[in-house]
Structures are given as C-alpha cells and as structure tokens.
TrEMBL record, chain B:
Keywords: 4Fe-4S, Iron, Iron-sulfur, Membrane, Metal-binding, Repeat, Transmembrane, Transmembrane helix. SUPFAM superfamilies: 4Fe-4S ferredoxins. Residues 89-121 are annotated as: Disordered. Pfam families: Fer4_11 (PF13247). Its main location: other. Residues 30-60, 125-156, 157-186 form the 4Fe-4S ferredoxin-type domain. This is 4Fe-4S dicluster domain-containing protein. InterPro entries: 4Fe4S_Fe-S-bd, 4Fe4S_Fe_S_CS, FDH_Electron_Transfer_Unit, Formate_DH_Fe-S_su. It is found in: Cell envelope. The chain crosses the membrane at residues 293-313.
Amino acid sequence: MAKVNLGWPVLRQLLGSDVLGRGVAARSKQTDATTARTETADRVAKSVCPYCAVGCGQQVFVKDEQVIQIEGDPDSPVSRGRLCPKGSASKNLVTSELRQTKVRYRRPFGTEWEDLDLDVAMEMIADRVVKARNDTWQDLDDQGHKVRRAMGIASLGGATLDNEENYLIKKLFTAMGAIQIENQARI
Amino acid sequence: MSWTISENSFWGPLDPAADAGYDEDRPKRKGFFTDTSICIGCKACEVACKEWNDVPADHFDMTATSYDNSHSLNANQWRHVAFIEQPKRLGDQDPGLRGTAGSVDLGMPAMGPQGSESPEDKPDFRWLMSSDVCKHCTHAACLDVCPTGSLFRTEFGTVVVQDDICNGCGYCVPACPYGVIERRKSPDGAKNVGIAQKCTLCYDRLDAGKVPACAQACPTQSIQYGDVEELRERANKRVETLHEAGVMDARLYGNDPHDGVGGAGAFFLLLDEPEVYGFPPDPVVTTKDLPAMFNRATAAAATLLAGAALAFLGRRG
Amino acid sequence: MAEAHPVGFQWVMEAKARGAKVIHVDPRFTRTSALADTFVPLRVGTDIAFLGGIINYVLSNELDFREYVVAYTNAATIVSDQYVDTDDLDGLFSGFDPETRTYDAESWQYATQEKDGGDRQDHETQRETASGMQHETHGMSVDDDVLRDETLQHPNCVYQVLKRHFSRYTPEVVAQTCGVSEEQFLEVCEAWTQNSTRDRTTALVYSVGWTQHSVGVQYIRTGAILQLLLGNMGRPGGGIMALRGHASIQGSTDIPTLFNLLPGYLPMPNAADHQSLEQWIDATRNPGAKGFWSKADAYSISMLKAWWGEHATADNDYCFDYLPRITGDHGTYRTVLDMIDGKVKGYFLLGQNPAVGSAHGKAQRLGMANLDWLVVRDLFEIESATFWKDSPEVATGEIVPEECRTEVFLLPAASHVEKEGTFTQTHRMLQWREKAVEPPGDCRSELWFFFHLGRMIRERLAGSTDERDRPLLELTWDYPLLGETQDPDAEAVLKEINGYDVATGRPLSTFTEMETDGSTAGGCWIYTGVMKDGVNQAARRKPGRDQDWVAAEWGWTWPANRRTLYNRASADPEGRPWSERKAYVWWDEEQQRWAGHDVPDFEVTKPPSYRPDPGVDGIDGIAGDDPFIMQGDGKGGLYVPQGLLDGPLPTHYEPVESPFRNPIYGQQANPTRKEYPRQDNRMNPSPPEHGSEVFPYVFTTSRLTEHHTAGGMSRYVARLAELQPEMFIEVSPELAGERGLENGGWCHVVTARAAIEARVLVTERMTPLRVEGRTVHQVWLPYHWGTGGLVTGDSANDLLGISLDPNVLIQESKVGTCDVLPGRRPTGRAVLDLVTTYQERAGILGDRTVPIVTTGPGAAGDDEGDPTGGGGGAS
C-alpha cells in the first residue's frame, strides 16, 4: 500500500497546501475511508450494565449478529453515558473466549469433564429433580403440621438474574415444595 | 519553485491542522483536558480504550506500586492511570491517618521528605491518580521524523499512526519527548505486531461525531474532550477554583502554546510537579532544530533539483 | 462508593463541586477517601458506637429537627415502664433469657400495649425463620390509644429513652472504642448536624458490607435513627442509600429467591403459625392495624391467583395449602452445613459462586462435594463447578476426585445482552433490557431453563393423582415461546408479575386495584403498575436531558413509579415545603391534592388536616400528617418495640471475633446471634475467653473497582483481570515492620478455619489505631480470587467462620481476627497442620464452651467459659 501510494502524497504535497507532507498529503486511502464501527452496525440494543446495582445504561451495537461494541448510553439519567471499568469491559465479558458455550458433565467419581447434549442434560436434570423430590418429600413435620415440601433440593442465586427469571424460579420451586431457595441477598 | 513553511511550523504557537494543509472548513482542534483532581483511579479509561481500539491485554503481574498494574503508556496501553501515595495534604482535606512512624520504604515517587520520624505525627497523606495519554503535541516529533508518512496530522489537529503505512522502522519511538509511542512486540497473534502504537484520540469516533471512548466512559469526567481552545479556558478556570478552595498545588501541564511542544492537545491539571506523575518536567520537541538543519542542507545543495529537496522533506528523513 | 460504584460516585462529585462536604468513614483509605473532604479511619465493627456517639451529640445538644421529630417520628410515644435499657443491664435489654439467648419483648412495648402488642411468634422461632423483620417490613401493629407526650419530657417517652440509652456514647468513649480522634469525631458531628435543617439535608450512603455483621440490622437502624432525628428522611438530598452490589439484587429481594419470603415481601408460611389462609394473611396485615399493609389480603390472594389460576378459588382458600411451609432456619448457611451432613440431594447454582463468594469457603466446597447432583449455570467454568478437581481441598486431600460422588452439570448461561428482561437496581428502578443477539451454542437464559425444566417435570407427573403433585400440575405455566430456542416471552412473565383483571386480562395500573375475591391476579403487588395501560413502563427511555431532575419517565420505580419513599415528609405537617430550596412534594390547596416533583407517597387527596376517627384502621387510620404510611402509627420508628430480635435500640457489641473486651458493656458481642457450633466451624476466641492473643490482628474484606464479587464476571475477562492480576493484602508500614513483611513479597493469613496467602501491599492507607489504650493493626483483603480464571489466588472468604445476624441470618463476614506471617503458606496437608497448630495454641481444638452471654446471672466471668452459652465452638 505504502509503496503504491508513495507518488501520490508527494504530488499532493507539491501541488497542495500541505507542503511539509504531514497532514492532508500523508493520508492513506484507508484513513480517508475511516469510520466508527458503530456507524455501520446493523442495530443497537438498549441495555443495562450487568455488574453492580447502579444500573448504568448501555448501548449494544450488533453487526452480522455479533456484538461489536458496548458503551454507555448518554440518554440514561442514571449514568449519563458513563461506565466504570467493569461496565466498559462488557463486550469482553460477553465475547470472552473463556465463555462456556457447551454443556459440561462430570459423572460421579469422574476425574474429567465430559461432553453432554443439552437436551440429554435437561432430561437427566428433570429426572433427578423428580427423584430427589420424591425421596425427600415430607407431608407433615415432627409436630404433625402440614409442610408439603422436599428438603433434598436447594438453590442459590438470583441477584444477577432478571426479575422475570427470579419469578419463574421461585414459582416453580415453591410449587414443587423446594424451600431452600436463596440468593446473594442473604450473603 | 517556492513553498511556504510557517515560521512556527516546528516551534511555537500554531494551529497544527491548518499547517498540515486542512482548509478553513476543518473542525476546531480537538483534545483532552484531564483534570486529575477529580480522577478516582477507576481505570474505566484504560478499559474503554482497549475495548474500542482492540488493544490486547498482555500483562498479568502485580507491580506492588499502589494500584498501578499497567506500568506505563506503551504499545498495549494507550491510557495509563498512575497512582501516587504521598505524605502531603490535598488542600484542606483531612486525611485522618494517625499512625506511628513508617518502617518500610514503599519506593513510591514523592517530592519532599518521606514520612515522618515521630510517632503519632503522620497526619499528611494524599492519594493522587492521573490518567496519562498521548499529548497530541502541536509540534509532534514522532510525526516529523516518520519516514513513511504513516504518522500524520488529522483535520482535528491530532496525531495518528496509519497502520497500513507504518513499516515499523521505529524512528518515532526515541523522538517522542514523553516516551509515549512504541512498536507492538506482543502478545503473539495480536494484530499490528511491529507497528507503532499510541492513542488516536479515537480518530474513527471523532469522524462519526462521537466522543473518544475514554472520555465517554470516565465516571467523574476527569477526562474531558472538546475544542482545545475551550478546554484551555475551562482548565484555567478550574485551577482558579481549586486555588480559591485552598488547593494551591493545582497547576496545568501541557496547556501553554509557548512550551517546548507548542502546547499539547492533551493537557493536564496536576496537583504536584510533573515528575511525580512520571511526566518530563520540560519536554521539548526533538525536531525543534529541523528547519535550521534543513536550511543548512539546502544551502549546501543549492544546485539540487527542488523536487528532490521536496521529496527529502516529504519523507521527513 | 468510588471504589465499588464509580458511576454512581459522579453525583457525589457533582454535589462536591456545588459545595457539598464529603465525609468518608472506613477502616481503610480507599479511592473514595482520596476524593473526600475528610477521611475517618475506624476500627472495623464499631459503627454503632460511632453513629451512637453522633446521636448522643444530637440529643445532648438538642440539635434534632424538633418539629419533624415530634410530628413524624415516635419520639413522643410513651414506652412501658417495665422496659429496662442496656444502660442498666450492662448490655442486655429487659426480657432476656440466657438459656435460649432470646428476648421476651413484652417489656419493650409501648405503655398500655404490653400484652397485646407483643409478637405472635416467640423470638426463638423468629430467629430460626428470619421472620423477625416481618414487623419492620410489614409495619408495627400500633393501637391508637398509645400515650404520647409531645413536649418530649416524659421520662419514658421514646425521646428520653433514646437520650439515656445513647448517653454512654460520649466523644471519649467513641474515641476509645472506634479508634477515632475526638476532634475528628466532633468535626463529623458538627458537619452532619449543621447540614441538616429546613434548608439543607444530609445523605447517608452505605454499602452492603454494613449488613454483613452479627449486628448488621442494627447498624442500619442506627443510621435510620440519626437521619430521622435530623429530619433527613423522605426529603430530597437526604435519606439512607444502600449501595447494593449486584445488578438485580434488589429485584431478587422484591421477587425473592429467599427461603422466608414470597414476592412483594409476603412471608413464606410457617407450619406452626400459618395453618390457614387467614392466619397467613393476618401475619402480614395485623388486623386492626393502620397503613397500607392492611390490604395484604388482596396482595396475597392475587398472588395465589397468579400462580394457580382457575384452580385457586374461595372454596379452597385460593390454593393456600399448595404453598410449602417453613419450620426453621432454611438459609443458605444452614443448607450448606446440611450438605456436609448428607441431608441434601441436589443443588442449583444460578450465577452464583459460593466456593469463592460465601463465608467459610471450605464448608461450601465440602458441602458441594457431598451431594447427589449439582447444576451450575454460569457464563464461565467457575470454582463452584470445578471444586472436585482443583479446589484447595483437593490439594490437602480432603476431596479426592475419584472418591467424590457429586454428579456435576455445568450448563452455560446466556449473558445480559442475549436475553430480554428487567433488572431492579439499587434505586428500586426496573429497567428493561432489549435482547441484542442470540446466545451462543448451548447458552440459555434462566427463563428458558426453568420454564422447560418445569415443563419436563410436569410431563413426568402428568396423570398423577398424588395430592402432592397438584401444585405443579395446576400451576399456571403457559407462556408464549419465542424463536428457535423457544424462550418464554419475558414480557408475558412481567405482565403476570404486574397483575391483571382475571375476567378481561386487562393489566392492573396500581396495587390498589387488587381485590380479595379472586377477580384479580398479580405475582408481585409492589410491581403492579410496571405494565400500566399494557405498556412496558420499565422500557421507557426518555433521555434524561429532556426531563426534569427527577427523570420520572426513565424506567419504572416501585411502588407506583415513586422515586423517593416517604416523600410526604418533605413537606411540613401543614403540607408546605420545609423550605423553598428543599421543596419536593406539597399540598396544593387550590387543587386540594398533593403535588410536586415526584409521585406523592401519600393518598393524593388526603389533606394534611385529616384526622381519623378513633378506632379507624387500615389506610384511613393514617392521619394527614403521618408520612410513614407503611407503619402502624404512620410514624418513623426511632425506637422499635416489635420486630427486632436483638433489642429495640442499637447497642455497641464487639464483633464475634475481636481482640478487645467490649469497652461499653459487660455483654461482649450480640447475645442473640445465630451460631452453628460445630467442629468444622470454629470461631477464634475473643475476650473474655482466653486465647484471643493468638489472633492479634483484625481483618476486613471488600471489593476492588476492577473486579466483581467472587470474580465470576471479572477474573475470566482479560481487560479486568490484567488491572488487578493478583490476590493481595494491604498492611500498614507499622505492621509490615512488626511482622517483617516486604512490599511486593508474600505473606499468609491464618484463622481457625484456614490459612491463605497473598502478595503484600504495604501502604500508608492502612493505619494502626489506638483502641482502649493499645494499638490495633487492621489488614484489608479483597475477596475476588479463586483457583479459576485468567488470574488466580487464594480466597479471602476461606478465612471466615459462620456466625449470623439473628434478624436476617446474614453472616458476619466483614470482620474477623487473624494472624499474619511473612512468606508463602505451606502447601498440601501442611496447611492443615498450620491451622491445627493455631487452634491448639488458641485453646479451641478440643471441647469448648464459648462464652456468648458475658453479663448477668450465670454469665461467664473474665476467666471462665459460660456454662449456659452453648455455641460457637465444639459440640
């Protein structure tokens, strides 16, 4: 590129206003074509930072179904477009090469992860929930009070999840009689 | 044959974009005013810069110098936040610390006496933070010495590496009076290894009317982006405000068009001597004497074709 | 705040630029301190003494906002003459039973209410079920015949009780206890009080480390008392701001994945006390009480209708019996200890990494290693998924992979940009996120996972006639499914949460539309209105610059899009703003309604002059000048006769692990705290028990800006990992000298639970304090590291034992004692030997009775264990 263009900057320099060849005369075609990748995004999703509870607005830029940039949303009265280092690293978070994208399975007494189909994993988990519920079911407590519950199933988590998700989690576990349902708010 | 080189093309006050051939429709000169008195050292600027510019992460070692684990400005660090723990007061701040005498040398840069000898007498302390960046000098030696035309002056008056042109010769590296620019050596597989690297003031974002990534992210607006002229006024007012508030240490660095680089496009409000933050106290553009050298050269080679001379200058050898 | 909530801190900096004074009180000089006007270093665990000292300063100098205090708080209410204060009982309140270490709260009640104002449940049950706070969230039951003395002179009025209670907290005592200089303490007192007037308000901001103490609830109570006394509640620029640490931790409390709660702070029914729908509802609404909880029947029945739809009828008590019952402590720590004991079969971890993030990391990991199965749903391969192969216990031989039976499913989760839904952040604001892209590979949302898990379980039970399966089979579980992955429609779920008219499906606009006859359904009454007019209000994004400063058209804040709670208090009793400068909500005489910048937190047409007739209860029982409408008397509670298990007033207790004897009372630490006395949960000894000198230093933990909680979203992210790449410890130069620690070198920290290593950062930001005439060194540790990710290190939470606040069962994890040694820790089994050596030296290796009750009859003296204390050590 540089060699091909070499003549042109000199000519521009000779004929133009940039006699020292430090500005307009030095621009490459690539430079002239420069544009912010956010300008050519297919769409922008309005989002919210997933880290702390300040609730900073985020804009998620998408091109070819890939996240190409996440930055602060200047419209947000909470954050005015600003983000801390964690919020600023959100693209790195969601596109990290370390993201787990396949189900991993460790069988009892296993020493390595194994692959497992998502559908199979779901069936196995459903089986185990039903079994643990049956195996630990209590109709009455030791004083004869109705309890209708299964103490063999526990859960921890929710503070990083959506309200809609917590709602289904609590609704399902409660209906199945699992009560040891907790999250970071107790920690 | 004649050409016009401004008498200030290499030294003194100058509108660098005009000098680089941009016409009157050009935007006003853009830059950063970094007000370190409100920096909280969060490093959002470092991350936002790396995310936007795809600058790789390549060092995972703790330096044990306060919270500075990014070492310095370098090829993979276009923003760098310095942390300075000092036995000094920040204006009227009551630092509250009342320990006994210090017993371990922390190796921190500091002006003035280290610690205090007598127990119960250690009231002075402050924690300074400052986000450093390429200065986008009015007179940029890196640009002046670049033989390929890779480094160029943009219409915003900033200095940018064109990575499609840079051949990695490295002349720019020693030319920078601040030690900012550097060729990328690592990590393996990173893009542009061997190419000179530094802040572009997010040239691509400016072109789209956006704010540079670091300035947009900065939670407290310690990093302010805007027209250099306006930023200089804002900076002067801020110093006045701080002085009125008793922070007499406040001073500007890099804002003066008469300084050794003709004023920086990215300048700073500091609370101590520049050296404390790792800045050179009185940087001078290393190509200050280029015109004189050039005049001597032309006198000696008066019979040479003008075009050859121009080519010589054009390649900035 | 600059440290863990940097973007929120922009508003502090803006306030500072406008002249606000910023005071930062913290054990360590942080990035917040660097920008504050004043930094006050404090001994960890002495916040009640510090704030109590300010309360004493306010009361003894009569600097309270008297008109506000008399009209809006219970300062004038007369307390029973049977009440005896900690001041007279050496740190205990009247009604203490040393056997159970709980109180009979009868004597704490208001005069004339001693009998009927008492708690329905005894305190021991309340501690077990974290239900003590019911009265706090559900309002006190207060009859309207309580006695008041508006001159505040009656010796038993709350104001005078408060004054006596805090009279011990003099500047000298504060200095002695907290390690703060008297001058600095008085400077804070002056700044706070001078800035709390008709014209000015002061905000108190805390981060939720405040809750992580054995007296955590009382920490916050102390702040509330002070802010009420100074008239800072319900007013712009005032209040108490809890800076919560996870995107939707507020949401996960409102719609609780918590054992003791149902959505909207309705209680999980208790087997013994809530045998019928009526009993359950009455526990919330307190029949005869005033305030908005009187409609708890509508909220509760609407929730049951949302869950069981057409199956929930008046005849079957709206399926109330489908709710499982709690019988005791089912909190996360109890559950983990039950795992160790083999009582739990399966465990779900949903974006949570207890192997690093919960107290007593070893107990967490040993618990997980003793399950039938574990499902981990996360973005990364976190430590809680890999404990069986790389935990510290594998190195010590305590977990042998070939012998560990737990079956582990690691299911990759969708990230925040790969699903839509709402977070509720720390300001109670719901903000809708649009979905940007599809999740990669097997990654799925929790919405997907739980919907389909529920579907598959229901398929397995289909046709069952077993009564136990009816709650599952009759559950409303039919959300529209979208796209290739068949994700449930999150907005449809939000509509159910919002509530709707059963007959027409019309979304409800406000919870006051909820009915008790089953004609309305709604999953979480406090969120009703988020789908007002069928519009997703949480998705509103009118730019801030196009709105006034309240920005009411961005997102939606519960309740009723109200941005500041109890804002009726921003006007005086007659409804006029306290001052022009602080005008927020006021009574518009012309329009005969409340008006202002925010949605008024009051019945909008109830005039300030309104007075209820005697005997009127419910919402109508609240007078026109009673701003605290969720409380039974409409008053802010300076003194709390019901609901707190460790006393009606905050009292300084030492942390469970402390090098110091309590300088204020004979009672050392919170006598009612929840303990799990087990060999695998030894607490370091504290005075009056011997052996505390073996662990001479105080440690505290917190976050760094560059990382997030247990590191699951930062140690695996290169841009963050490189910013703080190694586990470290901050020590003062003085301690470095005393222990031979070198900046940049290594040291290890030892407690009765673990020994961990860290790089040493010697810094002047840590300072020794003078406490009770001697020097105490404090060290600070971040808790972000574990064995996984790009940067690894030992986990600070491994140092902790499990000891809980009695009200809410949250662990004391912000303070403990330790020893600090130079160099790296031993490896393999040798690290266990080191810990055992320390246990031995401290005298806690064998059988041991920890002196929990350290004053009163039968208490432990300074030289002996407490025969009745029962707990804390070996059992």
